[in-house]
Design a protein that fits this description.
Strand order of the largest sheet: 2-1-3-4
Strand content: 5-15%
Number of strands: 8
Helix content: 40-55%
Radius of gyration: 21 Å
Order of helices and strands: HHHHEHEHHHEHEHHHHEHEHHHEHEH
Bound molecules: Double cubane cluster
C-alpha cells in the first residue's frame, strides 16, 4: 500500500496514525473472513476491495475530483444517493466502525457517547480517513440527539449540511422531508455546478435501484436452507455497497448471485445441515465492526438477514422509475426514504411488523438485537421488539456493545447459550 503514500500525504493525512489503522485491518480481516471454509469464489472481488480500501477507490475519487467532480460524504442511509449522482457527484458512506482517534474525539465530545459518533469525530480530528479528506461536503441529519449536536462541532472542521429528518411519519412530516430533499438537491447542484434534470435523475434512480435489486437478489438467496453464503460475507458486501462504484459493484454482486444460485441448486451450504438461523437487528455495523457477526457465526449459527441500516433498511424499497417530470421524481425519491424504519421514529411499529415477517420469510430460529453502547433510540426500542417477538414466541437475545474487544468473551458465552437454547 506504500505506493499510495504520496496520495495520502497530499490529502493531509496523519501518516503515522493512518499507518496504525492500516496495520490493524489485515490481521482482523484474515481471522474474520479469510478463514471461513467454502467461501464463494465471487467473494474474491470484495476481498480485493477491502485490500484496496484506502488505495484504489481513493485514487478513483481523486481522479473524479481532478476532472471537476465532487465527493459528498454521509453518515446515514437517509441521505439520497440518487440526488448526488444525478448532479454528477459521488456519494460516499463514511464508515465510523472502529475506535481510532478516540483521544482526539474526547477533546470535543463527552466520553460516554455512542461509539459511531466518537469514531467519525475521531477520524476527522486525527486525520486518518482518506474518504473524509476527499469530501467536498459532508451531510449530517437530525436523527438522534448525539449525531445532531456532533454535526455542529464537525462543521468547525469540514463543511456540514444537516438535513432535518422527521421523527414521525405523519403527512406533515412527509412534506417536511420532501422540502429537505428539495433543498438538498439545490445545494448539491450548487456544490457540483451541474443541474439535476429529469434525464439525469431518471438515470441515477435506475442505477441506484439496480444496486438495490442486486442486494435484494442476494438477500433472497439467503432464504434458502442451507444458506449459500455466510452472514459475515453478506454484511461485508452491504458495507462495501456504501462506497464502491455503483455500476461495478452491482455487476459483481450479480455475478456472485449467479454462483450462489448454482450452490442452491446443488444444495451446497457453507454451514453443516441443521445450523441454527439467526436474524440480526439494531444499530448499523459499519466497517470494520464485525465483532458480533463473527461471534455468532463461530458459535453454531448462521446469520440469514440483517434488519440494519447496513442491511435490509439500506436496500429494501425501490424508487418508482415511472415519473415524467422532476417534481414527481423528487417526490418518489423522498417517499422511498420515509419507508426506512429507524428507531428515531415514534411510533416505529413498522420495524416490529417487518421483523416478524422476516423471521417467517427467512425461516429464522431466533433474533439477536444488537445496539451500540449509549444509543438510546435502539436500546429503548429493544423493549418494543421484545414485547412483539414474545407474543409471536420468537426467541430474542438483547446485546449492547461497543467497538472494543473487552466484552468479546462475555458476549460469546451469552450468544452460545442463546444458540444452544434454540436447539
Ligand atoms: S437511519 S439507524 S443510519 S440514524 S447508533 S448515531 S442512532 S446513538 S446510526 Fe442510524 Fe440513519 Fe437511523 Fe440508520 Fe445515534 Fe444510535 Fe449512535 Fe446511530
Amino acid at each position: 500500500m506504500s505506493r499510495y503514500n504520496e496520495m495520502w500525504r497530499s490529502l493531509g493525512l496523519n501518516m503515522e496514525a493512518h499507518d496504525q489503522l492500516l496495520q490493524a485491518l489485515p490481521p482482523t480481516y484474515h481471522d474474520v473472513y479469510l478463514t471461513q471454509p467454502g467461501r464463494p469464489a465471487g467473494m474474491e472481488y470484495f476481498d480485493f476491495v477491502i485490500n484496496e480500501i484506502h488505495g484504489l477507490r481513493i485514487q478513483e475519487l481523486q481522479e473524479h475530483k481532478a476532472a471537476g467532480g465532487k465527493v459528498i460524504g454521509a453518515f446515514c442511509v437517509f441521505v439520497p444517493e440518487e440526488i448526488v449522482r444525478a448532479a454528477g457527484g459521488i456519494c460516499i458512506g463514511l464508515c465510523s466502525g472502529i475506535d481510532l482517534g478516540g483521544a482526539e474525539a474526547e477533546k470535543v465530545l463527552p466520553r460516554n457517547i455512542c461509539p459511531l459518533i466518537k469514531s467519525f469525530m475521531g477520524f476527522k480530528l486525527a486525520k486518518i480517513c482518506p474518504y473524509f479528506e476527499s469530501c467536498d461536503l459532508v451531510v449530517g441529519e437530525t436523527t438522534c440527539d448525539g449525531k445532531k449536536k456532533a454535526f455542529e462541532i464537525l462543521n468547525d472542521y469540514i463543511p456540514v449540511h444537516v438535513m432535518e429528518t422527521p421523527h414521525m411519519k405523519k403527512e406533515r412530516d412527509r412534506e417536511l422531508w420532501l422540502d429537505e430533499v428539495k433543498e438538498f438537491a439545490g445545494l448539491v447542484e450548487q456544490t457540483t455546478g451541474s443541474a439535476i434534470t429529469p434525464e439525469t435523475l431518471a438515470r441515477s434512480i435506475r442505477e441506484v435501484n439496480g444496486k438495490r435489486r442486486a442486494l435484494l437478489r442476494l438477500a433472497e438467496l439467503r432464504k434458502n436452507n442451507p444458506a449459500p453464503i455466510s452472514g459475515k460475507d453478506s454484511l461485508l458486501i452491504e458495507q462495501i455497497a456504501m462506497y464502491d462504484d455503483v455500476e461495478r459493484f452491482t455487476a459483481k454482486v450479480n455475478e456472485l448471485c449467479d454462483e450462489l444460485e448454482q450452490k442452491v441448486r446443488d444444495e451446497a451450504g457453507i454451514f453443516p445441515a441443521g445450523t441454527k438461523r439467526v436474524i440480526v437487528t439494531g444499530t448499523p455495523m459499519a466497517i470494520p465492526n464485525w465483532k458480533v457477526p463473527h461471534i455468532i457465526e463461530t458459535s453454531g449459527a448462521v446469520i440469514v438477514a440483517e434488519e440494519l441500516c447496513t442491511g435490509l433498511r439500506y436496500f429494501e424499497n425501490l424508487v418508482p422509475e415511472e415519473a415524467d417530470n422532476l417534481e414527481s421524481q423528487i417526490r418518489n425519491v423522498a417517499a422511498r426514504y420515509m419507508g426506512i424504519n429507524c428507531a428515531v421514529f415514534t411510533p416505529n411499529t413498522a420495524r416490529m411488523d417487518r421483523l416478524v415477517e422476516l423471521v417467517k420469510e427467512y425461516r429464522a430460529d431466533g433474533v439477536i438485537h444488537c445496539a451500540l453502547s449509549f444509543c438510546d433510540p435502539y436500546a429503548v426500542e429493544a423493549n418494543r421488539v421484545e414485547q412483539v417477538l414474545k407474543k409471536e414466541s420468537i426467541p430474542l437475545l438483547k446485546i449492547e456493545t461497543g467497538y472494543d474487544r473487552e466484552d468479546a468473551g462475555q458476549l460469546k458465552t451469552r450468544i452460545e447459550a442463546f444458540i444452544e437454547m434454540l436447539e
